[in-house]
# Entry
Amino acid sequence: MQDFFHLDRERDRTSLLKRARNVALKSLQQYDVDWDSIQFVQLSDAITFKITMSGNEGYLLRIHSDRWSKEEIHSELTLLQALNESDDLTVPEGIQSIEGSYVIELDPIDGYRGTCVTMMRWVEGEHSNGKFTDDCVYQMGLLMGRLHNAAASFDPPFGFVRPAWGAESFMQEMTKLEHHYACFLSKKAWDTYQVAAEKVLAQLAGISQNDKNYGLIHGDLHTGNIVFKDDQPYPIDFGRSGYGYYLYDIAGTIVGLAPKHRLQFIEGYESVRKLEANHVRDVECFFIMVMIENYCHHASNPRETSGLIAEQPYAQAYIRNYLYDTPFVFETIQPVQID
# Structure
């Protein structure tokens, strides 16, 4: 019996999305919603569909891969429910099925293993076009600070389980990248990536964990997981939420921002939650960690290869500076010549 998310070739993708739509339509019967339309959103760690109601109210239906257990998925929704109780946060929130379950387990079908399905309220807003104003970036930093404050006050119930993002998960990603790096890196560049990874792991080993620098984080709050309404940012897609350093979460956002905006993001964050005085050195470590993890995630997808290659003059410039202890995260970096 194959995984529901079985995906090796382009024709597998077409088959998977057709299979997923059928599962979505079947799952909708288990919710008390009078829907008008269903629209595919994206295929990532989950297959997502937007469900639109007659009154324009929307929901997000997610079909989960077997990467996450039912307990992990349920714990994500528990965290989101707690975050929504904060007066200054609006995050996606799970809704119950007719039978009162937040996570629906589907039986195997047509030779594919069963999967879990959840439904969430749609967070209204538009994605950025990539052109951020100074105030917009400041508000994004403020948002993350509020998220971390709210998560720090959350008391996980018995049975709460979410992944941890740190040295162990990073080593697993590097092992995966070893099988795919040749599509966008030379052997020489790959050797340099490995040296950078070793330095990241050594630096992580020297960072202590305490309540001020470590806790529950979003885990994937890149700019594509933020929507804007009335110029205010709202976070979406908490599928990777888990335990990690707060600076790791910050790095996940600023890796996609221009240097001057990285500073403004930090300023927004520190308006609600102060960082340690020596945080810049550690931010640069997490910046390299997140950047490499992003390549680990995308390297196996042929659709992403051209983009990965195009990014290397800058990526390898960042890695070069990191290895030579040259500050880079708040500086304008010149691209390097790729062999």
